[in-house]
């Protein structure tokens, strides 16, 4: 009877320890998640190669000057018959950082400068 009690007690401690480690792991994973902001764009014919190059340069300046941006990518679609011609991929630490970016004067100026070249746009935000 004493051995059985000891076995059950050890089993309970092992289950509790395993559950505790799982909870810590889940909390750590949640804290390490990032927010992805993806913008799909279809640009008009006025968006020449030189305009797209200027846009790329200005995006680099956004990344360098807006501290909330963790990572930024911009690319041209290689599929000819696609619905969108370009994609911007931004990473943020939090929803608050995304909101700060959206309201940042540099971002607003960027959107005003290049918005006239956009004929179609879709945005997608998700936690990763």
From TrEMBL:
It holds the Pfam family Dabb. SUPFAM superfamilies: Dimeric alpha+beta barrel (SSF54909). Residues 35-126 form the Stress-response A/B barrel domain. Gene3D superfamilies: 3.30.70.100. This is Dabb family protein. It comes from Rhodohalobacter sulfatireducens.
